[in-house]
Amino acid sequence: MVLGCTSGAGKSLLVTALARWFSRQGVDVVPFKAQNMSNNARVVDGGEIGVAQWLQARAARIEPSVDMNPVLLKPEADTRSQVVVAGVARRDLTELRWPDRALHLWPAMTAAFDRVTRQHELVLLEGAGSPAEINLVDLVNNRMVEHADASAVLVADIDRGGAFAHVFGTWSLVPQETRDRLAAFVLNKFRGDATLLEPGPTSMTERTGMAMAGVLPMLPHELPDEEGATIRGEPPIGAPTVAVVRYPYASNLDELRLLPHAASVRWATDPHDIDGVDLVVLPGSKHVAADAAWLRSQHFDARLHAFATSGGRVLGVCGGAMILGSEVCDPSGVEGATTGLGLLPLRTEMSPSKTTRRVGVELPRLEAPWAALTGLRADGYEIRNGVVHGDGCEVAPLVWRRGSVLATTVHGLLEDPDVVHALCGIRVRDPLEDTFEHLADAVDAHLDTRLLRSLTLTS
Description:
Strand content: 25-35%
Helix content: 25-40%
Number of domains: 2
Number of strands: 25
Strand order of the largest sheet: 15-13-16-18-25-24-23
Shape: globular
Largest sheet: 7 strands, mixed
Distance between the termini: 9 Å
CATH architecture of the largest domain: 3-Layer(aba) Sandwich
């Protein structure tokens, strides 16, 4: 099991790297994270999971499933998260206080883990946050490592400073059952000469009994961040400029990962950030009413109207499409009703039942400024509570257009190189496969693979 001293220490990166490394050794390996928190999710058979486990499954060269991430928390406000269990949003659990959920979540976690254990040769477990959060009931780290009876590797972000204190403090604070299973530690995101770290690693082994499993450098990679937004890539000279509106509950931002290779991408948090750009993207939203209110409070509404009226291209995806419409009604009290920006004649009704499915989109003949998209077919997925109704502006199933404003409820289209080429005029190549190989190479180069393999034999 890969545990972290802190959030962002590199647990997901290391599991992804190990998934491809073990796969290259011919091992039937599967990722597993009992509980994730992210508004970046993917649709698999049975529902939705966090994007990190979806990526790890791809690294392992296996089909992702809901068992790889049985509990997903999707923040809807500072103190509220939608609870997804076994791929399905559970409104009853969402309404419960956090301490009261554990009784309902633990059986789903263990059942999913037990199934993947029976189906695969090696399970790579990933923790969440830190196992030393002594104020919390910790199912994901401490109870799961005990249930799995797994050996554990502790990851620390040395770039933050204080890595040895993080390692020793975490080892000191975790329950004895976890401490007994902490077999090794990894220092991640190191810059410089690793030989200068001594006597730190040796002293840490003497104090804790954990072996030093290696030092990973600050690795360049193309994995999207699982909990936020990422701009990675170097567009060619003369590339168009794309502004992505970053409202508070923007979701599925990982699907934009190809754009920075074909365009100069900027996050728009101020209305002036869209001035002079070639395309404005309104991404998904986990809370449409709240994000629509934020746009008005920041005066984005007037600026977007002026931009679209002057012929500027505006693309809305899922929640962004709903925000571009005229009205969002919510008779069941799912998220709340709101008035949209009115750039498209769309009416959305929030439904208690959530749509999660993989779909394909085929675009008909389109006029300027969207003519380059004509005839394209791309596969994507839907994750939404809103049911969208168009009024004479539907150009294809799940796609609506009026003038320079285009909207769809389908996520993932911007991960298609043909779609990116049509929007930006620059051909790109998906770098994910190269990233998986690069990370596996880093395991060979920087980690004690003999030690890591021995832990899989004793866990």
